[in-house]
Design goal:
By secondary structure, the protein is mostly helical. The chain has four helices and no strands. Helix 1 runs antiparallel to helix 4, helix 2 runs antiparallel to helix 3 and helix 3 runs antiparallel to helix 4.
Length: 137
């Protein structure tokens, strides 16, 4: 098991990669696939965000543990993605999931800016993980 001095940047940068690949690249890409219908893309997205969320939660717990084990100035940057993840999962994802399930069923739903809020938070989470990981190195 690596010590906290190695574990903090390792986990922070791994989490940044999960965020970038799972949320910022793959999520919009599936809506560009011409043979993928919108309801199927939404169902795939629900599964994708479930598993990205599970992975992020595990990485978050490991990161918190590593931060508690070792003193680093990186904690000032790395508390940001922890708070953002909690806010995304507790406040933003439930209404987005409800909206997505309604769209999959073919219901008409009004406009929502929650996706934009989610993306802005995701970019902030990614950036703070990269900076925190770099500071921890």
């Amino acid at each position: 098991m690596p010590d906290a001095g190695v574990l903090v940047p390792l986990v922070a940068l791994l989490w940044a990669g999960v965020s970038l690949g799972g949320s910022l690249v793959a999520a919009p890409a599936k809506f560009r696939a011409p043979s993928l219908t919108r309801p199927i893309a939404l169902e795939v997205g629900r599964a994708q965000f479930l598993w990205v969320g599970v992975t992020e939660a595990i990485l978050c717990v490991v990161l918190v543990g590593a931060l508690l084990l070792g003193a680093t100035d990186a904690w000032k940057w790395l508390v940001v993605p922890i708070v953002i993840l909690a806010f995304q999962r507790l406040a933003i994802m439930p209404p987005l999931d409800t909206r997505t399930r309604r769209l999959i069923r073919g219901e008409q739903v009004g406009a929502s800016h929650l996706h934009h809020v989610y993306v802005v938070l995701e970019v902030g989470k990614f950036a703070s993980l990269v900076v925190g990981g770099a500071v921890a190195i």
